[in-house]
Amino acid sequence: MDSWDFAGRLAQLKQQDLYRSRQIINGPQGVEVHLDGVCYNNFSSNDYLGLANHPLAIKAFKAASEKYGVGSGSAHLICGHSAEHHALEEELASFTGRDRALVFSTGYMANIGAISALVGQQDAVFEDKLNHASLIDGGLISGARFRRYPHANVNRLAELLQQSAADKKLIVTDGVFSMDGDEAPLRGLIEQAKKTQSMLMVDDAHGIGVLGHTGGGLLQQQGVSQEQVPVLMGTFGKALGSFGAFIAGSEELIETLIQLARPYIYTTAPPAAVMAATRANLKLCIEDGWRREKLVALVEQFRTGAKQISLQLLESSTPIQAVVLGDNELTMAASGALKKKGFLVGAIRSPTVPQGSERLRITFSASHSSTQVDELLSALSEVV
Ligand SMILES: *Cc1c(COP(=O)(O)O)cnc(C)c1O
Questions:
Q1: Which of 240, 288, 367, 381 is the most buried (most CB within 10 A)?
Q2: Residue of 54, 238, 294, 339 marked active site
Q3: What is the pTM of this model?
């Protein structure tokens, strides 16, 4: 029994300021949340468009649960794929400008499922070092030769591609990087993929809803076609304010995933009511351009204010703004002090980010007011 030594391992994590714990939220997600009876300004959520508690999503959810019940009953390929799932897939195909889309239960599963369906032992996968954990895990699980290139370094990627003799080469990147907020060097990646007959996959979990004229994400904003980026992944849990994820691409890609993606095949389909709520929010996402405009204005206000108080931010024009403090203890202390002042801000430590780049991760929502942003800046000026 002693070789397990849970207590010793936990004590070690605590001592390194790496211990993780949860806080219990009472009430809906929003720019104000209640914890232990206290109300906080929330700058830590991924609910970028402020749709997680939207009345139309709640209404659609209620109506669909009256019609379909709560449980989906089985996997998609048995009898769990409802008309709501199917309608959402058709709407997502049109939203992303792709032939088809396939709903997965979570983004984590979509990434693992897609990568391991596309490459195997004879192949190679090339990933940005700052890719989301689910992309890294997908690459490892696939059994393909796994190569990582320094963040956004297209030249290094080009060298790795040249050196590879693999049958199939898959390049995988975050669209908007989840912890830094910057954008993938898409043009360079597309060029390398074309030159080496590699396939390019983009995980746009943080771009969908936020970038592009109808919220179609980084690929819509940059006018990138299905041929250039054949595999697009997006999630519902962030800007779309619900739960779940999708992969969009060609007819053949989607059919291949239905046949081969194990996390698609061997799991219960998400509830139809969640799909109905997602459809309602997708409609709001497309129609409410003001939400994206408001986000841009809030981010600009924050960056201008940060400059005035000499707060060092990573380069980012998205609603993800990072203040790198470079140390676990400093990061935990800063987020604790902000909490005392009534602000919830994410404290991000390794292994989520590389050691030495521990940070506060501040995220904005279209539901924040410009007064809240001023108040956050003033709290940051006292704490950091
Ligand atoms: C959140 C996230 C995921 C995982 O999506 P879930 O639906 O939460 O499992 C995948 N990739 C990126 C970049 C993310 O930020």
A1: 240
A2: 238
A3: 0.97
